[in-house]
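#lab-general

N.A. 3:47 PM
ok so I finally got the sequence cleaned up, no stray characters, all 379 residues accounted for. can someone with queue access submit it? mine expired

B.Y. 3:52 PM
send it over

N.A. 3:53 PM
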Amino acid sequence: MKNKKVKDLRPMQLKDHHMPKNFDISLKAYGGGGTSKSLNPNPKKLKPQSMKGFEAQYKNIIDYIVRITYTIWEEKNIGYIYDTYSKDCRVWDEFGLQFGSEKIVSDTVHTNNAFPDIRLFADEVIWAGDEKASFHTSHRTIITGTNSGFSKFSKPTGKTVRLFCIANCVAKNNEIYYENVVYDTAGLIKQLGLDLHQVAKQIANEGSIGPFAPDFKNSKPKRKITKLKPISYEIPKTIKDVRKFVHAVYDTIWNRRNFSAINDVFSNNIEFEGSTGRKFKGVKQLRKFIISIVASFPDLALSIEDLYWMGNTKDGFLISIRWGAVGTHKGNGIYGPPTNRECYLWGITQWEIKNNKIIKEWTGFNELAILMQLLGDKK
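B.Y. 4:20 PM
back already:
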């Protein structure tokens, strides 16, 4: 008997008219998030937003995403997940698909057991959409905690950790039904004092990865260097069409390998924070990082899987980009000697743009899963 095909519940892609044109509803306007002091003490003063199907206590989508996170993680009302995640929700992380609200509750209990004093501080929320199309939020949080309980990686280490996470959620009628979340898991493992490569190999050999999300596997044809000539795109100097700008930047730099374009779109003093504790400033360091990835996977092909933003040309933009890539590990570099294995990479990037230049970038990607794909013993 053939297995029944699972229904594809991916949300619709947002159109340009779904994007907020200003920052009236934003984390900055909200006053921050993640602690009792930074949660807005008087939501009545918030700019209201039509949120049919959501609990009446939430005035807008920022209020919703910040406060449900606070309730679940800070107040430890983990059961509130049953009210804010659909029963058949799909949550994709670097280990693969986590299906259903029961699994999300179980994972959250496990994390709280491993880090009893865990704290989540809202660092940014980029949103778009509406009650009809669904609300999309790209929620960046700073996570701190002390590992005094058993984790999925080891017995208690007593180590205090700090990492960032980006969770891209899609919600309708008070429930998140689709989520892509990237934790700096590789950075967490290193902060716990564990051997990252050893942990990656062990997890891979346990068969704890997969399946990949349908749209992680790169929507474009696999790059064939000898046959395919990447298209050359002109990157707009003034950002009027955000979608065109973002696609041009990624195709030019990542797919066409025009690394000189980095100077054209990023501020000279670009501030970057990424997976495995990467933190640096300046275009030279950014170029070095990008080239190091491409050098490891010479046939890498990257595509944008989801994109939304807030803002305008005058005030600037906040942009959320979820991307996927596929390449063959043929280069000696940051992931060790070539294994000739095909590897899937995916991540979420947030850009802050001022005066038509990217001044800050946060990129979380599946670095632990990359190592799992490369180091696991082939079956």
